[in-house]
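Table 4 source record.
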Amino acid sequence: MISVVRSVVLSLLVLRLAVFASGNGSSLPAANKYVQYSAKVQQTPWKPGTTGTLLLKLTPQQGIHINTQPPIVVILDDSSSITLVGKPKFGTVKADTSVYLDASKAIRQSFTVARSAAPGPLLLKGTLTYFYCSDAEGWCSRFKQPISVTVTVVK
């Protein structure tokens, strides 16, 4: 019995190493094949201490919708130069008793550039988490979309 368990564990380890060696074991998820994504900042450049808006656009395929519950969440990677202000703001559409993301409009997330930020390019990096569902097939899934946008800081 122990040798069977040992063989299974060894096989799983070899499989994981093969996936990692092929480049598919990176920490970034594959693109969501059901939802297209884009990100940009509303204006540029910023002076230290000013507030800007990150625009996140999710465009689902026909028959897919983005749920607003559980909430759409934006989290920044550790950064002392950029902080989020409030929660993401977005339009909604109603379908029967459900409320979905209005995919014709961008999700808006405010942020502040720290007063101590040095002039030059600054990477706004984080994760957008959302839930999307298939209307016809009746399934839902969570997706964690990496965010990476350059913000220019001036004096």
